[in-house]
Amino acid sequence: EVWADLGDDVPTVLPGDMDIIATPIDYLGVNYYTRQVVGASGHVDTKTSGLPLTEMGWEIYAKGLTDLLLLLHRDYTLPAVLITENGGAFKDPVINGQVNDADRVDYLRTHISAMADAMDQGVPMAGYMVWSLMDNFEWASGYVKRFGIVHVDYETLKRTPKQSAHWYRDFLDRVRAIQKTPRRA
Predict the structure, then answer these.
(1) CA distance linking residue 148 with residue 164, whole number of Å
(2) Helix (H, G, I), strand (E, B) or coil at 98
(3) pLDDT of the residue at 39
(4) Shortest CA distance to 149 belongs to which of 96, 105, 83, 84?
(5) Which class in CATH covers the domain with range 27-180?
(6) Per-residue pLDDT averaged across 109-118, rounded?
(7) CA distance 83 to 62
(8) pLDDT tens per residue, range 57-80
(9) Band of residue 1 on the pLDDT scale cut at 50, 70, 90
(10) What pLDDT is recorded for position 7?
(11) Could you write out the DSSP letters of every residue in 116-170?
(12) Strand, coil or helix: what is 30?
């Protein structure tokens, strides 16, 4: 019935197309930044939730990532899930050659923990990627909003690792150390 609703916009299906479409995926990529609360009356303003917001005005709600991963796992037969984008834009100026972005560290810590909660409940995860390595051009905001764990001075192109880059490096080192530790019988 969906095809009927499309009318003249129905794409032409060529021989072999359905076989290609039916090919299983290797992983499911998920981008997660925030939740969007809606109700029967339409959009609900999440700014009244009392939770902190990113510079984009997005509510910081890590539990939403756990909820999303559990829903996908419960309702679909999926391969491993890869978090392909997760991060937040925060004000983080360079002061004395350093960028203290404690809000971003907390965002990453809570969202990685939320992913781990989903893993503990059986969701197969393939990996996690921070958005983004470096401050960059954001399509909706240009160079104003900074998501990177490495600060970029857009005039000189000098890169300065933020506190979050050091935290993420140390976190990965701890994970590697745990993985190398033999399990006790």
Answers:
(1) 9
(2) strand
(3) 73
(4) 105
(5) alpha beta
(6) 98
(7) 13
(8) 999 999 999 999 999 999 999 999
(9) confident
(10) 87
(11) HHHHHTT--EEEE--S-SB---BTTTBTSS---SEEE-TTT--EEE-HHHHHHHH
(12) strand
**Annotated domain spans of the chain:** 27-180
Q: Which pLDDT band, with edges at 50, 70 and 90, does 45 fall under? A: low
Helix (H, G, I), strand (E, B) or coil at 51: coil
And the tokens for 133?
Answer: 């390595």
Query: Which one-letter amino acid corresponds to residue 17?
Result: D
Structure tokens at 119: 């893993």
- In 23-80, at which residue ranges do the beta strands (DSSP E only) sit? 28-31, 38-39, 42-43
* Alpha carbon distance 154, 6 (integer Å): 46
> Does the pLDDT of residue 181 top 80, yes or no?
no
**Are the C-beta atoms of 73 and 118 separated by less than 8 Å?**
yes
Contact 104, 62 (CB under 8 A): no
DSSP SS3 for 81: strand
Indicate whether 83 pLDDT > 90: yes
Give which of 64, 163, 72, 81 is closest to 129, Cα–Cα: 81
Count the alpha carbons within 13 Å of 64 in the hemisphere toward its beta carbon.
Answer: 17
Residue pair 101/49 in contact (Cβ under 8 Å)? The answer is: no
